[in-house]
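Example record

The entry below shows one chain as it appears in the dataset: sequence first, then structure tokens.
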Amino acid sequence: MMTRSTDDLVRLGDTLARDGVVFIPSALGSDQLGLIEGAVEQSLAVPTQSTRRWYLDSGTTFHDDIGDDSTRERYLEIARLARIADIVASLWCTKELWYMGEQIFLKEGGFCRRTPWHQDTSYLPIQGEHLVSVWISLDPVPRQHALEFVRGSHQGTVYNGSAFDSRDDTAPVYATNLAPRLPDIEAHRDSWDIVSWEVSPGDVIVFHLGVLHGGAGTEPGMRRRTASLRFIGPDAIYDGRRLEPLGMKTGNDDALESLYDRLAPGDLFRSPAFPKVWPK
């Protein structure tokens, strides 16, 4: 594991604020990876009600589990023990962190299609600088199969979410949402400032929830297990959107319903379902 000083992470925090994403090589050691791998394998073996399998007609596995109350405390404790939360705190120069939850992915079994371009904030009524996901791969990911980002896009438009429709990646998920439809980034890649990295186990990518991102597909012989742990900080606010139910159980459903009833637009985004990282 590469030891990084707080000053190094503060400088990376400036890059995160500007670009919406930073790559931190060798951020986790073998013991820390072991903790994360154990939790991910447990999630794959015992999926929650939030588990979804995308593109079933492809003959490949595209597994996505947002977790629920039964898994949140487990991953929060791992975020503390594996020092993932410390990385986020240093990037933001604050110890005020709240854990939003995890998302576990598995792609394998052949030519698994890419994850459509999207923003996580399309599915969460939240704004602010302090909104990130820490993306951790347990398997090597060559650059041509990596997660990709449109640099700086977290500072721009919030689009309607992707419905993950195999016929059209830009098909909107919310029928009555006034947000504009996603642009067809994949068809016009040269028009966008796209960045990505080859990733090895131990590397992490930290990205703002509002940055446009999408994952390249996998090929036969590849297995890609990833965990994405989400955090919010002091300036996260409720932006006033009341998002339509998607017809599927998600890990944030109950938290969002209680939030709609309690908060006004511009209020700090806080919910008992999103525990504070420190103190325990």
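Notes for this example: Helices lie at 6-19, 30-45, 69-81, 84-92, 253-262. DSSP finds five helices and twelve strands in the chain.
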